[in-house]
Amino acid sequence: MSSAPPPGLPVVDAMTPPVLVLHGPATRDEVSGPCEALRALLERGADRVVVCDVGGLGPPGLAAVNLIARLQLTARRAGGRIRLRDPDPALCALLDLVGLRFEVEGQPEQREPPLGVEEAVEPGDPVV
Q: Region annotation Disordered: residue ranges (predicted)?
């Protein structure tokens, strides 16, 4: 037995940013396609963050670093930014080595302490 889809627009979670899935292996020549897809995602939605799923890029190398850096540049030029999903630890180390820092999905932001961490207060400390 089948039923017709409900009338009206589909329900969309407004808190979930769009996702760009990157497939590997990354090469230097295949940068324009993902950059155009990212630009289209940023222009289409009100979201200024696009999640880039880099789990399928394959072994990390300078071609992957080049692709991710160009995606970040494209996002910034369009007024947005990217967040990495499922990066290989070696890719994170390589990005850090060349001086590129990216927000990684599932990790707390640098300014926020991880959940469950509380700052100690000493008696006599001034109230802030």
A: 107-128
Q: Does the domain formed by 19-104 have CATH 3.30.750.24?
A: yes
Tell me the pTM. Answer: 0.70
Collect contacts of 60-63 with beta carbons under 8 A, ≥24 apart.
Answer: 60/88, 60/90, 60/91, 60/94, 61/26, 61/94, 62/94, 63/25, 63/26, 63/27, 63/28
Question: Partners of 81 in the beta sheet?
Answer: 49
Confidence of residue 26 (pLDDT cuts 50, 70, 90): confident
Question: Are the beta carbons of 48 and 80 closer than 8 angstroms?
Answer: yes
> Based on C-alpha coordinates, what's the Rg of the chain?
19
Q: Which pLDDT tens digit goes with each residue over 59-105?
A: 889 999 999 999 999 999 999 999 999 999 999 999 999 999 999 98
Instruction: Give me 52's structure tokens.
Output: 């880039």
Q: What residue segments make up the domains of the chain, in order of their start? A: 19-104
DSSP secondary structure string, 55-86?
A: EES-S--HHHHHHHHHHHHHHHHTT-EEEEES
